[in-house]
Amino acid sequence: MSPARILVVEDEAIVAEDLRDLLQELRYEVAAVVPSGHEAVAKAVALRPDLVLMDIKLTGAMDGIEAAVKIREQTGIPLVFLTAFADRRTLERAKTACPYGYLVKPFDQRTLRATIEVAMNRYREERRPTVSVSEESALKDDSCHGLIGASSAMRSVFDEISRLARVDSTVLIEGETGTGKERVARAICKAGVRAGKAFITVNCAALIETLAASELFGHRRGAFTGAVDNHSGVFEAAGGGTVFLDEIGDIPKSQQPFLLRVLEEREVTRVGETTPRKIDVRVLAASNRSLDAEVAAGRFRSDLFYRIRVAHVIVPPLRERAGDVSLLAKRFLSQIYEKSRSAPHAISEEALHALSSYPWPGNVREVKNAIEFAAIRCAGGIIQRADLPPEIIAAHAPVVGALKNLPAGEGKARMLDALARANLNRTEAARLLGISRATLYRRLNEFGISGGEE
After folding, report:
1. How many CA atoms lie within 13 A of 329 on its CB side?
2. β-pairing verdict for 242-246 and 79-83
């Protein structure tokens, strides 16, 4: 596999050159190095690199977050943010760009490599074919057909799965991105009468409107340009099994009446044909947003909504089941260790506490990415707090009460946060900010901040 091509966006020349050297030493290809947000967008569109490393704080009219949002919208290229200041407010705003990771300056080669590899692996997983006949999960069952959780919220989900497995009704599964909606669908299937038969997943958000009918319902040879053979859609291909319509709210509106007919009549009509074909499938659907709201906004048919929501499961976000975080972390680490005995085999109590204290906006999927990051970063057999992704460490950083009431202002806030995270040690605060101790002293004087001993 050829090395990843990386676009570096950094307005401090020395930092940019250091980063170029680090990437080249790690055998990555540097596609370009640019200092501004506008140049970053232009280069990303023109060069199409595999990854963008983007400094959040850029001089000029467009900062890193604005540039990242434009790159995401125009190219879909995965992006990792660089920052010397991992405060909660900045991280919240940065989420609008859907980054694949964060690097807090200064960082070493191991952290850089771990962040890039986790980002690239996550991107590759998301790019897998969106319509496929899925194999049985290789994971061992835990709690409920591969789902993990001991919290009361998840126990309620397990009970609902057991009830729904005994019937053959259509089910709507709702929950935030990353909560495990597809795993719930698989659990319902594996516990029911259609276990062992085909389980076909359709990512409705990835369906192209002009080809959606062919993918879902099939087509006759010659029905349109490019239709060189007869083709059966996913409902026919399921053949007695289950069709899982992921992100059902994004299905093209033009296809919603045809899907409604499939659910009501249990038959499909291929594109280019007039005679319907009977089908025998169970339909499970999922959405990461409220379909009630989509119906109210006129984006989703109400009759289709009620036909889909014969039964309803709500998967709780991880912040409502914090007690499950350590179970998930240990399970994901166990999977990594089974593949490579050189990987760490345990997680320290301090690291588990940091993991359990984090709000997990990306839910279970984010836990998996975090453990993979830590396993790559870890130099020993036990994952420590320092091995965790920077946003988790930053969120778990101590806050010094004596500093809370000083006036804010972005520059001053940066100094205060760094001093707090360093427990008032100025040398450590300078390291966290990625500046020299002399620069830190000068900035402290500029902002009128005193306190902090070696």
Report:
1. 28
2. unpaired
